[in-house]
Amino acid sequence: MLSDKRILLIITGGIAAYKSLDLIRRLQERGAKVRAVLTNGGSQFITPLAVGALTGDTVFTELFDREAEHDVGHIRLSREADLVVVAPATANIMAKMAHGLADDLASCVLLANDKRVLVAPAMNSKMWSHPATQRNIVQLKADGINFIGPNAGEMAEKSEAGYGRMSEPLEIVAEIEALLSPKEQPLKGKRVVITAGPTLEAIDPVRYIANRSSGKQGYAIAEAAAAAGAQVTLVSGPVSLGDPRGVETIRVESASAMLAAVKSALPADVAVMAAAVADWRVAHDSDQKIKKDGSGLPPALNLIENPDILKTVGHLHEDRPKLVVGFAAETNDLIENARGKLERKGADMIVANDVSPENNVMGGDNNTVRLVTRDGVEDWPKMAKEDVAKQLVTKIAELS
After folding, report:
1. Any idea which GO molecular function terms this record carries (predicted)?
2. N or C: which terminus of the chain carries fewer CB neighbours within 10 A?
3. What b/e string do you get for 217-254 counting C-beta neighbours within 10 Å, with b at 16 or more?
4. DSSP conformation class of 290
5. Is 211 designated active site?
């Protein structure tokens, strides 16, 4: 799939640089031609000799290299590439990119570049979550930079874990193939709003009411819609998933906050309400932890209904999306309940699934859904949630 594609790989100074050697080989297996820029930091972890042995080409390391710069090499390098990949991308190189700094070969190449750029961040989880890094990410995405990862897991320090691990070489290769392969974009020019995950409704500072949703299906739909060319806003309850690629992600906790975020994201062409919103919340959550009083009786909780986000969107007079898709997670009478929801909520389609424990849908990687519309019911076989998302986006494109 990458036959004769030219990849300029920039390797910066992180322990994940060792993965870049495998990345070079994986790209070559698929027919790509790889040239490499190795920063001074990167050369502390892998050598120019190792990189050059794999690429079969000169490894570029210095900005003021008389031989390489006789024809303005830092400009030529990017001009001769189909894609520039920064892997690993440290917090330092991302900061330089975001602020337009150019004090070494890698940063000069990136500033003089006129090709698409893919960065694969790799750093300590605290560095990744630092406000400065997060600000730089927002700027880079606004500048059109593509991201892959980072993944969650154990850090090089062993005693720390979290987001910051560089994506695996094959994951990066798949993203490179997606960026360089021509693809249909049936939702190009469309705005899509998607909700995902659970909501948390506070009882006190310690306890809350929630659902078991992992957010995997909603996140997969957001990523598939973005890949189909849509401008996607994802409103997510608390989940452990990273932001989908190419998607504006707004994180909230409560149903009220989720509704407010959805309204702010309108108008849109399509709304996909995949979140598992808690039906109830306590009328007045306590600002202190509720203690046992020794009576053996639980505290009385005055529950009230949460706002119905799907119904609110489905019955809008102004700014109602052309297509409103809801989800029905049921444990019994699946189709009957889905049809009732379709009518009550003013939706155009309900994605119904049986979430009985034996089906392992809530938190699992697979799903079996049935599409319920006013025209009938369409049964889909069991498949990975990513495949459900792609098929659903195809259906949405047909109807919107």
Report:
1. FMN binding; metal ion binding; phosphopantothenate--cysteine ligase activity; phosphopantothenoylcysteine decarboxylase activity
2. N
3. bbbbbbbbbbbbbbbbbbbbbebebebbbbbbbbebbb
4. P
5. yes
CA count, 13 A, side-chain hemisphere, 213: 29
Interior angle at CA 263, CA 262 and CA 267, nearest 5: 100
Beta bridge partners of 193: 233, 271
60 appears as a binding residue in the annotation: no
Secondary element (H or E) of residue 255: helix 255-265
Class of domain 191-399: alpha beta
CA geometry: angle at 175 spanning 164 and 84, to 5°? 85
Catalytic residue among 211, 306, 353, 367: 211
Residue 159 region by backbone torsions, left for phi larger than 0, else alpha for psi between -120 and 50, else beta: alpha
- The reply, when asked if residue 341 is annotated as ligand binding, is yes
Domain ranges of the chain: 6-180, 191-399
289 among annotated binding-site residues: yes
Q: Which CATH number applies to 6-180?
A: 3.40.50.1950
List residues bridging with 376 in a β-sheet.
373
CA atoms of 246 and 229, how far apart (whole Å): 10
Locate 233 and state its tokens.
């806003």
